[in-house]
Task: structure prediction
Amino acid sequence: MDYEITLLTGMAIAVMFALSLNLITGFCGQISLGHAAFQGVGAYAAAMLGKAGWPFLATLPAAMLLAGVLGVIVGLASLRVRDDFLAITTMGVVFLFVGVVRQQDVLGGELGISGIPDHGFGKLGFMLVAMLACVLVVLLSVHIRRAWMGRVFNGIAEDEDTMRVLGIDVPRYKLAAFAIGTALAGLSGAFAAYHLQFIGADNFGFIESITVLSMVVVGGIGSVPGVVVAAALLSALPAWFQFIGDYKLLVYGGLLFLMMRFSPDGMAGLVRRALRPRALEGGVA
Result:
């Protein structure tokens, strides 16, 4: 039973993390290759505040705020760049984060932070809290997607210049996407810190950024249900099939290649195309 609880907790955290990137890259079209840095900020903030005596639930908003503020700073620095240049800029953030953490003894340095205090909910209780947070993030993503903000995000992703001509304050909405997405990444990081009970710089490096990007691409960029399913499955694969753990990057890279080659819109696109003929047949009948 402990194994299943641990697995479900990890899946909930992965879903939150993937949805946070989906909001930036999927909804708003802003490529981020350093998203793990924001999860790391949330994790380190929660871990250090927890060790300072803060209760677990109190560390969550603090982790979100700190990660969100960093996201706005990165967003401000990225307003004048697009596409490949934006990807390189965000990639630099994760390398900067790892470098800073490793050089600061107050952040655990090379050894990381251990002895993170217990959250006080027990394994089952913590899993339920993580799943509740995951559901709230899903609902928030769906709400944003359907709201005016989501429509503007979609317009920016499709044609940023046209949105400027229409009078949309594009920089404002870009910053909003970075702020919300990175804050949610910080939330997932806080849960990850208490889930793992130990964190180090390598937990939030470039490989983790590519891993979460794989979840978004495989699920379907911009699709909330697709990203939820892909994040849950891909986070559980190494646990279900032990050999995958040794070839994780190879498996994820292969999935990325296959999806971009045969279904650029991910699993969500595959499902839509599979259902479309049936819907047409039903209409003809």
